[in-house]
UniProtKB/TrEMBL annotation:
This is Tripartite tricarboxylate transporter substrate binding protein. Belongs to the UPF0065 (bug) family. It comes from Teichococcus vastitatis. Pfam families: TctC.
Length: 326
C-alpha cells in the first residue's frame, strides 16, 4: 500500500515558506471573475458532494463565486477534456479522481489527453472511503456469501459503479479476478444515479463511496458487507475488510484539484493556499469526515509525485484484470 500520509507530508515546510513570500502582481489580481470547478460525475455522487462542501469556503476565501459544473461521462474523461481545453487563466479547474488522473490512461485504448502532460497539479483534496454494499433485500451478509453466489450463478450477479475506470469499477474487477468469479459490471454516469438503482434492487452490489452509501446504510436501505482497505477502520471496527476473505485485496480512492496546462505558478500557489485553508477549516473538515472523506491537503509538487506513483501502481492491476475500454 502507498502511504499517502508519508507521501503527501514530505516537504511541507518548504511549501509554507513559498506561500508566505510576497505575492506577484498576477497573483494579487486573480481572481477577477467567477471560478468554475468541473466534476466528472452527476450531481449527488461523492465527488459532487465533497466539492460542494468545499465550495462556500473557497468562495469566501477567493472573493469570487465558485461554481460547480457537472459533466459526467467516460469515467471522468469528458470533464477532464473540458478542463484540458479551457483557458489557462484560473477560471476553470477540475476536481479530478483516481479514475481520470491515474487509472484511465491504462484502461482506455486511446485517450484524447495526457493527464500528466496536459494538466497542472494544484492540491490534493481528500482520501475517500469506499464500502461494499448490497440492497437490504439481498440474502448475502458477508463477502464469502457474495462470492459463493457469484460462483453458483456465473455472469448473473451485477455490480454498479459511478463510471468506467472509477475505483468502484476496478474494485469489482479485482474482486472477480482474486475470487475467480465472473460478475457483470454496470457503469453509470455518477454515484447518484448508481445509488438510486442499487437501492431499487436493479443491481446486486457496489463498491460505493461512503458519502453516497453511508446514509442509505443508516436508513436500512443498504447493508454494508466490507471495506476494501488493508485493515479494519477505527470508525467501523465491526465491518470486516475484503482482505480478510481475499488476502492482499485493497482499493483506495481520492480526489485532487488540477487546472489546464499553462496555468501560472502564481495562480497555482494562490489556489493551493485557498484549498489548504478550506480543508483545515474545522467545519469543512468535520463535514467531509462525516461523509467518509479524509481532508488531505498537499503542495502542487507533492500531488504531481503522487499522481505519477498512482498511475504506475494501477497500470499492472488494470492489465491483470483484463479491463479495457475502446
Amino acid at each position: 500500500m502507498i502511504n499517502r500520509r508519508t507521501l503527501l507530508g514530505a516537504g511541507l515546510g518548504g511549501c509554507t515558506l513559498a506561500l508566505s513570500a510576497p505575492r506577484p502582481r498576477a497573483q494579487e489580481s486573480w481572481p477577477s471573475k467567477p471560478i468554475r470547478i468541473v466534476v466528472g460525475f452527476a450531481a449527488g455522487g461523492a465527488t459532487d458532494i465533497s466539492t460542494r462542501v468545499m465550495q462556500p469556503k473557497l468562495t469566501a476565501i477567493l472573493g469570487q463565486p465558485v461554481v460547480i459544473e457537472n459533466r459526467p461521462g467516460a469515467g471522468g474523461n469528458l470533464a477532464t477534456e473540458t478542463v484540458v481545453h479551457a483557458p489557462a487563466d484560473g477560471s476553470t479547474f477540475l476536481m479530478g479522481t483516481i479514475a481520470a488522473l491515474a487509472i484511465n490512461p491504462s484502461l482506455y485504448a486511446s485517450m484524447p489527453f495526457d493527464p500528466q502532460a496536459d494538466l497542472v497539479p494544484v492540491a490534493m483534496a481528500g482520501n475517500v472511503l469506499n464500502v461494499l454494499v448490497v440492497p437490504a433485500d439481498r440474502p448475502w451478509r458477508s463477502v464469502p456469501e457474495l462470492i459463493a453466489a457469484a460462483r453458483e450463478r456465473p455472469e448473473t450477479i451485477t455490480y454498479g459503479s459511478s463510471g468506467v475506470g472509477g475505483a468502484g469499477h476496478l474494485a469489482g474487477a479485482l474482486l472477480d479476478q482474486m475470487a475467480g468469479v465472473k460478475t457483470v459490471h454496470v457503469p453509470y454516469r455518477g454515484g447518484g444515479p448508481m445509488m438510486n438503482d442499487l437501492i431499487g434492487g436493479k443491481v446486486d452490489y457496489a463498491f460505493s463511496t461512503a458519502p453516497t452509501a453511508l446514509p442509505q446504510v443508516h436508513s436500512g436501505r443498504l447493508r454494508m458487507l466490507a471495506v476494501p482497505t488493508a485493515q479494519r477502520l477505527r470508525a467501523l471496527p465491526d465491518t470486516p475488510t475484503v482482505a480478510e476473505t481475499l488476502p492482499g485485496y485493497e482499493v483506495q480512492n481520492w480526489y485532487a484539484l488540477v487546472g489546464p496546462k499553462g496555468l501560472s505558478p502564481a495562480i497555482v500557489a494562490r489556489m493551493n493556499a485557498a484549498m489548504r485553508e478550506t480543508l483545515s477549516d474545522p467545519g469543512v473538515a468535520a463535514t467531509l469526515e462525516g461523509h467518509g472523506v479524509e481532508p488531505s491537503p498537499s503542495s502542487p509538487e507533492e500531488l504531481a509525485r503522487f499522481i505519477r506513483v498512482e498511475t504506475a501502481k494501477w497500470a499492472p492491476i488494470v492489465r491483470a484484470t483484463g479491463a479495457k475500454v475502446e
